[in-house]
Known about the structure:
The chain is α+β, with helices and mostly antiparallel strands and 180 residues long. The chain contains six helices and seven strands, in the order E-H-H-H-E-E-H-E-H-E-H-E-E. The longest helix is centred in the last third of the chain and has 15 residues, at 114-128.
Amino acid sequence: MLKLVKPSLEYADAFLAGLEEYKTDTAKFGLDNMRQTIKTVEENGVSAWIEKAHNADIGKDLPDGWVSNTKYWLLDNDEYAGSFTLRHGLTEGLKLWGGHVGYIIAPSKRGRGYAFAGLQLLLTEAAKRGLEQVLITCNTENAASFAVITKALKLYGGEQLSDSSFDGKNYHRVWINTKK
Length: 180
């Protein structure tokens, strides 16, 4: 059974096994955050990372310019399949790059529908938080992510905005409704 869970020690072993996959991952997109996560876990332990994620959820100890956000692990029968982030608000920068939603799928799970399934679960969580729409962005070179976003746009409705540029890179930007 596929589910989104907030980071907890209950699922830490699955998460740690998933992190091992990212250590040798050569994907072009999304690895910067995972490498930072790996570094934090290796230096401070998974409990410290979980506490940091909990604090981000309640808006505590955020770096300047950051918004509160909820991290989730996508599990398939309690096996780690990916990580999702739901940002609770948008800064001017997030309107150009980042949006409300971030996700990365474990290398062994890519191309098998996990990104779209996880996004659907995340849209439900966003609706529970009172968000009627979420902004999702992706690098214009990331065809796989854009295919997931386009599929969600067709199913849930929303609006594709003009592409943006940020830090020398170009991004697709799409508002997705959180309810069908």
